[in-house]
Design brief:
The protein has 386 residues and is an alpha+beta fold. The chain has twelve helices and ten strands. A hairpin with a 5-residue loop joins strand 8 and strand 9 (167-173).
Length: 386
């Protein structure tokens, strides 16, 4: 009986190792298949900022360079970098596109924009300015018409403010939920302050936006996976997450204050390059946690902060930036929550590394190699292809 009990325990341990390793391989297979379906850009997020003035709705819609390219016919698309020459060549097509970005109606009556403009903004993003004349104050309905033409998972964050600059509507749109409705009482200028529940819904939308920006921003997600795979202790996972949070908090703040705003094509390419570097470093130092990983996280986190910063212009409820602290805080909280979930999931790799030698010997290097390959694929796409 003693011999039997001694032999059973190692068998159970080996069984646990096999289960862990098979689970790891299954996760690796799913990630590989999923990552293989992704093109060189994340699903992306665009912004729409509206202002209700006396008899007028002013709407400014902003797109990242690659997303703006997707709105053009295939034969008119270029490098996706939007140089001034490329913008000038596409200006006529973009001007024709502008009136078809949104469907706007007041009290069920459709209205067309009386004025449209398109301009190349800082960071080579593209801004469309639409001005609608409102014949009367009534319930306002806005529907984003082009979300279905953008990559699957693309979202548009909409903020509509009244004449005083106070936000009366905030919503995160997607292809399956592309409409914003504002009641007549809110549209009527000077008669209604934003309701408490509307403000709460707006902040909840921003919190959700931050979480989704972490989880559906495949560059950020892949970076975190590559970053945490090398961790060998719970403490290491926690400190790495803290370093990443501090670094993107800094660049988000700089972007919010308009101190720094590098071109998105450079930021996207640098994010992809950071994934390649981490994957290679994980392979080169397998079996040991890379030295200086915290300092590296702080440096790379600055780049990812600029990647998050595309939503910053839409977070403020005033033209001069006042009222940004609370929305920005909610957005950072959402990103941090998404990051914490990723960290919690990847803590299991620490347990696997202690329980299953095959994961340490084969699984982690293979996964790191795949992450580097995906990062290289994105890097080349962001540098050379639309």
């Amino acid at each position: 009986m003693v011999l039997e009990s001694v032999s059973i325990r190692p068998a159970r341990e080996r069984g646990s190792e096999r289960v862990a390793f098979r689970g790891f391989l299954f996760g690796l297979f799913v990630y590989t298949c999923f990552a293989g379906t992704l093109w060189a850009h994340d699903p992306g997020i665009s912004t729409a900022q509206g202002r209700l003035r006396a008899g007028v709705l002013e709407l400014t819609v902003g797109f990242a360079p690659a997303d703006a390219q997707q709105l053009l016919p295939p034969e008119a698309r270029t490098s996706g970098k939007w140089t001034q020459n490329e913008f000038d060549a596409a200006r006529e097509l973009l001007t024709e596109l502008a009136p078809h970005l949104w469907a706007v109606s007041v009290d069920g009556i459709a209205i067309a924009p009386r004025e449209t403009r398109v301009q190349l903004a800082a960071g080579d993003s593209l801004n469309f300015a639409l001005v609608y004349a409102r014949p009367k104050d009534g319930p306002l309905k806005l529907r984003a018409l082009k979300l279905g033409d953008l990559p699957s998972g693309h979202r548009e964050f909409v903020v509509i403010a009244d004449e005083r600059g106070l936000a009366v509507a905030k919503k995160l749109l997607s292809a399956g939920n592309d409409t914003v409705e504002i009641p007549a009482a809110v549209v009527a200028l000077g008669t209604a302050q934003p309701a408490t529940n509307q403000a709460a819904q707006g902040y909840w939308a921003i919190l959700k936006l931050g979480f989704e920006q972490m989880w559906t921003g495949f560059g950020h997600l892949t970076f975190m996976v590559a970053l945490l795979l090398a961790c060998r202790s719970f403490r290491s996972v926690l400190t790495i997450n803290l370093c990443f949070t501090l670094s993107y908090l800094l660049t988000l703040t700089l972007a919010a204050l308009k101190v720094a705003n590098p071109p998105s094509r450079i930021v996207e390419a640098a994010i992809a390059a950071s994934i390649v570097f981490l994957g290679i470093e994980n392979i080169a130092r397998r079996g040991a946690e890379p030295g200086g990983r915290r300092a590296l996280t702080l440096a790379f986190g600055l780049l990812h902060g600029f990647g998050f910063a595309i939503v910053v212009p839409a977070l403020s409820v005033h033209d001069d930036g006042r009222g940004l602290v609370m929305p920005l805080g909610m957005f950072i909280l959402g990103v941090g929550f998404g990051q914490a979930v990723i960290g919690s999931v990847l803590l299991s790799t620490v347990w696997w590394r202690r329980r299953a030698a095959n994961v340490e010997r084969f699984g982690l290097p293979v996964l790191s190699g795949i992450l580097s390959t995906v990062g290289l694929y994105w890097f080349l796409g962001r540098i050379f292809f639309s």
